[in-house]
UniProtKB/TrEMBL annotation:
<dbReference type="InterPro" id="IPR006683">
    <property type="entry name" value="Thioestr_dom"/>
</dbReference>
<dbReference type="GO" id="GO:0047617">
    <property type="term" value="F:fatty acyl-CoA hydrolase activity"/>
</dbReference>
<protein>
    <submittedName>
        <fullName>Acyl-CoA thioesterase</fullName>
        <ecNumber>3.1.2.-</ecNumber>
    </submittedName>
</protein>
<dbReference type="InterPro" id="IPR039298">
    <property type="entry name" value="ACOT13"/>
</dbReference>
<dbReference type="Pfam" id="PF03061">
    <property type="entry name" value="4HBT"/>
</dbReference>
<keyword id="KW-0378">Hydrolase</keyword>
<dbReference type="InterPro" id="IPR003736">
    <property type="entry name" value="PAAI_dom"/>
</dbReference>
<comment type="similarity">
    <text>Belongs to the thioesterase PaaI family.</text>
</comment>
<dbReference type="InterPro" id="IPR029069">
    <property type="entry name" value="HotDog_dom_sf"/>
</dbReference>
<feature type="domain" description="Thioesterase">
    <location>
        <begin position="69"/>
        <end position="147"/>
    </location>
</feature>
């Protein structure tokens, strides 16, 4: 793992942040001050971060096409995994982590790779001591449902 170019004070402050505070901080860091994350590969943008609910967007670009010339399902799966996982993260206390145990995605319609913006929103269903569940939706610019899913995450104390 590449060392983060953060100061000791920033690292100490991060260890005391709740999940929501950590995400709010991490997403404000300039790209050259943080390690690469999967969202960078898809050009993911943070639209909103609040306790129990997050929204991100991606563009449907030709670089994410499947052999049929439409958006690969993995793009929506990645968007859903990101928003649902981050929704879980917003509910966690300082020093508590999580990981995806299960991801279920339902694809509703194909998406052209013409640069349209897809918006993913993840919301908490339940947060327990050792697991959490969340649900998510991906909408196209017309508000049509493209995909939806659920996740179960393991909570690491």
């Amino acid at each position: 793992m590449t060392a983060l170019p953060l100061t000791d004070d920033q690292l100490a402050a991060m260890s005391r942040m709740t999940g929501l505070e950590f995400l709010q901080f991490a997403f404000t860091l300039p790209r050259d001050q943080r390690p690469a994350v999967i969202g960078d590969l898809f050009g993911m943008q943070v639209l909103s971060l609040e306790e129990g609910k997050v929204s991100f967007s991606i563009q449907s670009l030709p670089t994410a096409a499947n052999p049929l010339g439409t958006l690969h399902g993995g793009a929506c799966a990645t968007l859903l995994d990101s928003v649902m996982g981050c929704a879980v993260h917003t509910m966690l206390g300082p020093g508590v982590g999580y990981g995806t145990l299960e991801l279920k995605v339902n694809y509703i319609r194909t998406v052209p790779v013409d640069g349209r913006t897809l918006t993913g929103t993840g919301s908490i269903i339940h947060v327990g001591r050792s697991t959490a569940t969340a649900e998510g939706k991906v909408l196209d610019p017309d508000g049509k449902l493209v995909a939806h899913g659920t996740t179960t995450c393991m909570i690491y104390s």
